[in-house]
Write a structure and sequence with these properties.
single chain, 422 residues, alpha/beta, Rossmann fold, six-stranded mixed sheet, four-stranded parallel sheet, 15 helices, globular, binds pyridoxal-5'-phosphate
Length: 422
């Protein structure tokens, strides 16, 4: 397998594994797509939906021709990831203020987050190269996903998790799967920097979204969404943005579907960050103090002290910002930043619809509502929000909102009734 640098265009082999070009630029997998027939592949993908076992029963590997055509099937580690629901509920549509709103529930993945879509591709690729040890730095869901796939494949996982402000549920899930957990003082950004420096000497296969295979696997989210909608996508696709790997992946998936002739029209991509961790939103809105360099080129100004209750978004220096910016430009997309109270209120709405998600996921709905109110999204338009993580990923947030009333507004609060001795 080969990759191309998105900065200088140089090609690099991905064996042994590489996570950046010699020039420092990010890598994209180079796909041998010439001569693909979209109508034939649509039929193949549809036939595979009847599979109950084997790699094509997976909602990621069903699209193997568009994700990792050269990867040997024997290396694939799958837990039937993808195959997630697409839901539409009136109270949420009214909350956002659009004509039609769908939720793509990546929370229904085997480890409870969309990270599984990319992780199955990364771990399978690492296995094809003969790696025994897999590593990541994480705000929680990446480590839970990696720990699950590594355990399933009988391999070792090593995860770096910040000591503070990470959801206990995610750390415990990772611990239960047998990962070697190393906590540290600092944020996700410090953990990733450490691993980028030390992965090679320690013979670790790095599974963060700087790994281009993660991006390839995550493209399957829009492939499945498009297939569920008979290859006609809504006007907007809305995602929460932390490290921005997902925004980069969904954008790349959309670009390929369009270029290969699977879809006629590109939807617009909206990326929603939390106010306390919104360096990308500031950059895209030209409100980043150090915005442009002397050459007029855009540079991201990291947030040195990221903070938000949506812990999966607590990232100050998103590694995939260049790729995400390119995808916003390609689709005429936009960004938003939302406060923690708005995020938790939107979460209460999604939870009450019987769909459910963790706080970070609800940023998408909060952001869409804000974009409608500001006029960036027209009320007659349609949208799909990607729900990134499961309701049970952060049970403290539920307690703080409903029982302690520490966050959010009171309208959507549920109560417990104590009946005393019966
Ligand atoms: C990782 C994660 C995000 C952020 O995705 P990025 O690819 O880092 O931008 C959002 N929500 C949840 C639940 C996550 O686990």
């Amino acid at each position: 397998m080969k990759a191309v640098c998105i900065e200088c265009g140089k090609e690099t082999a991905l064996s042994p594994m590489r996570y950046a070009c010699g020039c420092g630029g990010p890598l994209d997998v180079k796909q041998p797509f010439a001569g693909l027939d979209p109508e034939r592949l649509k039929r193949v993908f549809r036939e595979r939906r009847a599979h109950r076992t084997g790699i094509y029963a997976s909602g990621v590997w069903r699209y193997k021709e568009l994700i990792a055509p050269e990867l040997p099937e024997s290396a694939v580690v799958t837990k039937n990831e993808g195959n997630t629901g697409l839901y539409e509920r009136e109270p949420a549509t009214a909350y956002a203020g659009v004509r039609r709103l769908m939720f793509k529930a990546q929370s229904e993945n085997p480890s409870g987050s969309f990270k599984d879509n990319g992780m199955t591709a990364a771990v399978s690729h690492g296995i094809s190269l003969g790696y025994e040890r897999f590593a990541c730095a994480s705000t929680g869901n990446t480590s839970a996903s990696l720990a699950m796939y590594a355990a399933f494949a009988g391999k070792q996982s090593i995860v770096l998790v910040p000591k503070r402000d990470v959801s206990d549920n995610k750390v415990l899930q990772t611990l239960a799967a047998g990962a070697d957990i190393r906590t540290f003082d600092g944020t996700y950004d410090d953990g990733l920097r450490y691993l980028e420096t030390h992965a090679e000497e320690q013979e670790l296969y790095l599974c963060n979204s700087v790994n281009p295979l993660r991006i390839e696997g995550q493209k399957s989210i829009v492939f499945e969404l498009a297939e569920q909608l008979n290859w006609r996508l809504p006007d907007w696709i809305v995602v929460p943005g932390g490290a921005l790997g997902n925004a980069a992946a969904l954008g790349k998936g959309l670009r390929e579907l369009h270029a290969l002739g699977f879809i006629d029209k590109l939807p617009q991509l909206a990326v929603v960050q939390a106010e306390g961790a919104a360096p990308f939103h500031r950059l895209m809105n030209g409100r980043d103090g150090s915005g442009a360099t002397a050459g007029g080129e855009r540079m991201l100004h990291p947030e040195p002290r990221p903070h938000t209750r949506a812990t999966a978004l607590k990232i100050g220096h998103p590694p995939s910002w260049r790729k995400a910016a390119a995808m916003l430009e390609l689709t005429g997309g936009t960004t938003a930043a939302v406060g923690d109270d708005e995020i938790l209120d939107a979460k209460a709405c999604i939870d009450r619809c019987g769909i459910g998600c963790e706080p970070a996921s609800a940023a998408a709905l909060a952001g869409l509502r804000q974009l409608v109110r500001s006029g960036a999204v027209h009320p007659e338009q349609t949208a799909a929000c990607i729900l990134t993580g499961h309701l049970l990923k952060d049970t403290d947030a539920i307690r703080e909102y409903h029982l302690e009333g520490r966050i959010g507004s009171s309208q959507l609060r549920s109560r417990l009734t104590h009946l005393g001795k019966l």
